[in-house]
Amino acid sequence: MHLVGVKSMTVEQLKSYHSTRYDSICPGHPEIENEGVEVTTGPLGQGVGNAVGLAMATKHLAATYNKPGIEVVNNMTWCMIGDACLQEGVGLEAVSLAGHWKLNNLCIIYDNNSITCDGTADVANTEDINEKMKATGWNVIDVFDGHSNIGAIVQALMTARSSDKPTFINIRTVIGFGSLMAGNAKTHGAALGAEDVANIKKAFGLNPEEHLVIPPEVYDFFREVADHGEQLEADWNSTIKAYTETYPELAAEFKLRVEGKMLDEWTKYIPKKEDFPTGPTASRKSAGLVGNPLCENVKNFLIGTADLTPSCNVAYNKKVDFQSPELRTACNLNGDYTGRYIHYGIREHAMGAIANGLAAFNKGTFLPITSTFFMFYIYAAPAVRMGALQGLQQIHIATHDSIGTGEDGPTHQPIALPALYRAMPNLLYIRPCDSEEVAGAFISAINAKETPTIISLSRQNLTQYPQYSSRDGVARGAYVFIEEPEFDVTLIGVGSEMGFTVQTKELLEKEHGLKARVVSFPCQRLFEQQSKEYKQSVLKPKSGKPIVAIEAYAANGWERYADASISMRRFGKSLPSATTYEYFGFQPKIMAPKISALVEEVKREGIESLRGDFRDLNGYLGIGFEH
Amino acid sequence: MHLVGVKSMTVEQLKSYHSTRYDSICPGHPEIENEGVEVTTGPLGQGVGNAVGLAMATKHLAATYNKPGIEVVNNMTWCMIGDACLQEGVGLEAVSLAGHWKLNNLCIIYDNNSITCDGTADVANTEDINEKMKATGWNVIDVFDGHSNIGAIVQALMTARSSDKPTFINIRTVIGFGSLMAGNAKTHGAALGAEDVANIKKAFGLNPEEHLVIPPEVYDFFREVADHGEQLEADWNSTIKAYTETYPELAAEFKLRVEGKMLDEWTKYIPKKEDFPTGPTASRKSAGLVGNPLCENVKNFLIGTADLTPSCNVAYNKKVDFQSPELRTACNLNGDYTGRYIHYGIREHAMGAIANGLAAFNKGTFLPITSTFFMFYIYAAPAVRMGALQGLQQIHIATHDSIGTGEDGPTHQPIALPALYRAMPNLLYIRPCDSEEVAGAFISAINAKETPTIISLSRQNLTQYPQYSSRDGVARGAYVFIEEPEFDVTLIGVGSEMGFTVQTKELLEKEHGLKARVVSFPCQRLFEQQSKEYKQSVLKPKSGKPIVAIEAYAANGWERYADASISMRRFGKSLPSATTYEYFGFQPKIMAPKISALVEEVKREGIESLRGDFRDLNGYLGIGFEH
């Protein structure tokens, strides 16, 4: 960055690496916030997925906007990786997809120094990487001397540009080349010391007495690179000018994308409350009702699924698959690179990492959507986190949430995962209770320009509450669902457990003579952003009345808002949806007496008796067991 | 299970699949709790890792106990998988390791029906799986007709037994074979209906009018299988008898393993408090002091690392690597199958899944240890969860926790991850503050026979508190670290933030005239298991004095125990360890005034003023930003 003239990257900044300077732009790993950095790297293998996403973005834009003789998008994606990135599963998933999609605009430059932290890479890896990459659909080029044979590297890069497949350049290198520690694993992370740094300088013909001095001929060389870059930019501007004259409409659209803007007035596609069916509706179905017209019409959306098209309802009308056109005849597939529907296969982690690349490509050009069962966002968690850390907007459609997913059993029933996503900085985990709240979830997600959102949805049908539910309420994280002027208890209902909550309120009144308010609480993060006044108006913590959260997840996190919870204290169970809820005591007839007893206790002993004594009201009911 | 005579698996039980019966042992996916099930499956790809672990267990026991002419362990591990398992990264990581280790006692039977939920597998996968497996070190056998050519399948299984590598049998099948829906993706999950089930019965020469009837000749055939199994068991008992006569000591040890017992009195290897250095010590180093003698001497431990031997300090004295002896000459590696130190490479997820297989192999025979940076247990999270769900004891050594890991930056600094593991059922997340508490963490982990434990450790040096810290306190989750008879506030200190907590206590007294108690809180789950009386004696919530938790993670979860926290509300930052803490306001001189102000407010307005108003005392300090 310094050599090619990025202004912020001064010599002083270079010196700030690993220093105590708060304003360093030379952090331990590259960070997207800093000029010239495409994606934040560090966690191994993520970058492979990101690169696949960046290359897909280019492929898609080229297929959509290029015209014969006028290419407005034609860049390569170059990705430099080390030995570890292709040991990580996410890297392997991503290269498999790049080979499948024949992304010939992607080139991986593999720094094969055969050294990892534990010493020789052989200690854990003796596979034939070239054959593996070939089997996965890659063009493989060997460079056997990565130190002195610069010509071979240049030749390989040129060859990559004209490949019909993605290219893998396997360059043999020596870690710490020129140092006495050459080939030693310690050079990965430990400083070499002044003496050995001098050795390296000598090996490369530099003056070992000088420090952080860049010879003028190096600057001169890179000045040429910078000039060349400026020329390329000028050429591109000319291309755009010609394109604008010949294809004014496409050019206008392309310009919007370059500016990172939405291509259509998206709000008009969001259904109104009265448009939704009033009968029981699974919220994954509601998400289709809201999301599908958006995805069909607003071309920024790139919609993907980890092999759950029939379950996640993200396939929109007239969808075109993102595929290599060559596969049409070879595999009888539809689709081409203009397609915006992405079959990621059963590769949740790569889906997340690739979506980060798509979202990072000139931020705003695309708004990626991913989809799978909520439980399997635990596979994608490292990538979802990197999206949040980088401020990359995207929407994760997470269906089959809570124990209500039923028969697939405890392996498929998330209990602890919401705690991760609710705690994660810069992420919205939204769990809507009906179609209206699903609309609110999409609106909040699309308005969060630098934040990814997980919309957490039910497999099973849910009662609709048009008389109570509110998209504006979702935007505030929580809101009063059913008010009671004189109340004994506040019940917090969430997502697919709202139905049980409302029924419990009714039963409390009918059989226990107690009045319960109901609060809908789809998103803790959005609620935290509200004023103290608003928060207190929703929860009324000063009323002296207890607050009980009802959700079929671990209670962790609800202690901030409630005195007690009816929640999950063990893993789930393989039973049909309604029976699973019954098994774990979410029936109103089981919950109401427990809540009533709590109310009586508070009446007797005062609300302060609950201080420091958060109540998990859900015992094991004499059945089941705690793991 | 029914056909080979497993008594619990009655016809009634077979009918209970997808039913509402609480006592069904035919859940949606196989579950380890049920007789005859080796591991719980469901989440795709995990089983490949589990199978590699099971095969390693056998290899290791065989190398350790078999003698010329007497093989007490020589079983194969057979693993049946579908198309998806080798799309998942965890599956790919695991097969790479199996090939490296030349686990010729492992055979994967690949049900290649080329159909996934989205239709033809080609939609997302067109690689050459056979070539890929060969490049990864596997023997590949094709079976082109998996329906009628039973002989070819049998032949392949026989060939697998005599391979010098793991074997991959690629069997082409048709999903829903015999049904009108044959080859259709819908047969994966949807019921076929009575009419089409009749078609299948006809196709196989069964009476379509009969339901759940098993012909006598089928029972007869499987009775032979059962008899053969009984004969094999009798033979094995004879072998053990002969072995016991010739090698009485080894046989006694082997018998202990079969019983799932520890091979040595482990408690004697745990250092006493006075054995630890009193100077500043990184808790990852303390973990080496506690764990290394245990691992050296107690041979149940199988110790692994995801390429972080130099950082995680799990390499014990005289360690022998688990490696194929063939690699000694081929790659100049030490080690053989008797080795108990496992280099997993940079494959955290497979490490977790393989460790589950090791732990599931005749529960108790092994106690697997895994290790990597705590942040990268987010890669392993799906496997760690499966360990907890299956009740598989293991110890995950998670070093470089909290923002104190420093220069590697926000990508390496966990903020939200503890919330996941604290919420996860049947998992202990223990964060010790010094060497004595590290000893306590190991003791609790080893005593938790059906529960995995994460021990969360610092990269940086920590002040030792032998005058306050207590291994017995760790066993109770939290305990009084420094008591004050007359106090104004209780401070909760955790792990590497304990030093700041104790300093803040001192500063509160010196500069604000306030008395603070200090509670050490290494494990929320263990604390939850204590009596209400004990819990209240530690936190004194009824004292009317505020409680403040100090931890450099998201506050989520501390609301159960505290009124306020000094915690992290955004991702971290790349700075040296001490500077990172400074940047985020963990200096005592920044924290003490905030706590003092809270105490004053409570004195003024009463403790009830904090109800429903949990305080994140850590603002952004005018620097940094919230993502």
Give structural notes.
The structure is a homodimer of 627-residue chains. The first copy, chain A, is an alpha/beta fold and 627 residues long. Chain A folds into four domains: 37 residues, no CATH class; 192 residues, Rossmann fold (3-Layer(aba) Sandwich); 197 residues, Thiamin diphosphate (ThDP)-binding fold, Pyr/PP domains (Rossmann fold), CATH 3.40.50; 141 residues, Rossmann fold, CATH 3.40.50.920. Chain A has 21 helices and 20 strands. Chain A has a six-stranded parallel β-sheet, sandwiched between helices. Chain A has a six-stranded mixed β-sheet with strand order 15-17-16-18-19-20, with helices on both faces. A four-stranded parallel β-sheet of chain A has the order 1-2-6-5, with helices on both faces. In chain A, β12, α15 and β13 form a beta-alpha-beta unit. In chain A, α7 crosses α8. Chain A is globular. The first copy, chain A, starts with 10 loop residues before the first helix and ends in an 11-residue tail after the last strand. In chain A, 53% of the residues are buried. The C terminus of chain A is likely disordered. The interface between A and B is large, with 135 and 135 residues.
